[in-house]
Amino acid sequence: MCFTNYMLFFGVEKWTMFVDFILIAGMSLLFLLVLFLLKSNSGSSKKLLSIFFLNAIFFLLYYYAYLHRSRILGGVALFFGSGSGFLLGPILLFYVRSLVQSSKNFTKPLLLHLSPYFFYLSLLSAPIALSMTLGVFQDYHSNYVAVADYINLIENAYFATYIFISLKLVRRIQRARRQTYSFVESSNLDWIYYLIIGLFTIVILDSIFSIYELIFPRIEWNIGTIIAVCIIVLYSILGYKGMFQSKILLPNFLLEEPSNQDSNNMNSNVSIDKNSPKLTRQLDVFSEEEIAALKLKLDEILNEKKPYLNESLSLSELAKELGITDKKLSELLNQHLQTNFYNFINTYRVSEVKKKLIEDTEKKYTLLSIAYECGFQSKTSFNRVFKQKTGMSPSKFRQLQGVKAMAEV
Fold it and tell me: What confidence score (pLDDT) does residue 227 get?
């Protein structure tokens, strides 16, 4: 059944009431999110995220005004809600940056990135809003309608560019966290990753609608309502995550590393190209004997003092114990041990778990209690890491140990 027949079947009035409810509910939810973010007073990252929700409120308000044929509401909503791609692209990028970097010097660069939005606001949004509310610039408005879809495609391309850059930055941060922390499940950025993918999907869908309207006659109902519903769903599912996102402390040198090292650090079996001219390596002046001595000292610390039992062990803490800088330790792990901090520490944790499982033949302790005792913070990460390192689940390993014990008896 096509959409038009669907509307006729249920009645245009009922369909209007349904859409009206969705738009009001969406705006109400987003307004509550904005209030929470602004009242949290927890830095620029929350303020930048609130711009996302504020823009979405006016975006939804435009379709609400269209539904009720309110020119005044439509003009207000269009002024504050149009040009979303030019606004949200830079806001998204600087929001991700604000999670890992100081935001003191963000104002000028952000304003520079937002210059296309201010240009759009003054030359398009303002005159069109005035034409809708006051009846001026009518010819201007008519000319804009003729090229609106082309402008929308340019806007979407601009937004998509920032989405791509933001996605690369999120991936770089995720990899840097694995080089800094031995536990990365808490406060991860998976929700931002899904938000970015969702935004990209909406951009593609909106572009398809614009191309459709360039080729085929415009349909009676506003096709953009589908985009509005998609935004409500996306922000409702993932938006609340941003309210509780904490700042991620990372050494600056890890964020400045080129993508070659980042990608290699994800796989401990892949070495890093030492010939890269962009990398400044502090261990290059060390002799092979000095590197071997560092490796030996590191192994002794881990075997004797067992700092990996600390669930929140970080790169800087282990570097301090070793008597070197965190950058030197990161280089030692990356270039000379072909691993990252997260994989390196969890290797020792898994070995400790295996040792305790072998000793605990009578199964006095649960798997989870042993995991916690060995430095793991959650059952999910424990099961995943253990299977990754051993090729089997912890329960399967314990079962095999029981069979071996019975055979020895």
Answer: 87
User: Is 160 strand, coil or helix?
Assistant: helix
**Closest CA relative to residue 70, chosen from 131, 135, 132:** 132
| Cα–Cα distance measured from residue 122 to residue 79, given in angstroms and rounded to the nearest whole number | 9
Maximum CA pair distance of the chain? 95
Reply yes or no on whether the pLDDT at 270 is more than 50: no
d(CA 252, CA 242): 23
Position 85 pLDDT exceeds 80: yes
Is the separation of the CB atoms in 343 and 265 below 8 Å? no
| C-alpha count within 13 angstroms, C-beta hemisphere, residue 278 | 10
Alpha-carbon gap, residue 255 to 98, rounded angstroms: 13
Q: If we measure between CA atoms, which residue out of 334, 359, 227, 349 comes closest to residue 281?
A: 334
Q: Report whether pLDDT(63) > 80.
A: yes
Distance CA(64)–CA(74), nearest Å, equals: 8
Q: What is the pTM of this model?
A: 0.80
Q: Which residues of 260-270 are buried (b: 16+ CB within 10 A; e: fewer)?
A: ebbebbeebee
- Compute the distance between CA of residue 181 and CA of residue 315 in angstroms, rounded to an integer: 6
Cβ-Cβ contacts under 8 Å for 63 (sequence gap 6 or more): 19, 23, 222, 224, 225, 228
Read off the DSSP letter of residue 113: H
Say which DSSP state 285 is in: G
pLDDT tens for residues 209-263?
889 888 887 766 667 778 888 898 898 888 778 877 877 877 777 776 544 444 4
pLDDT of res. 11: 52
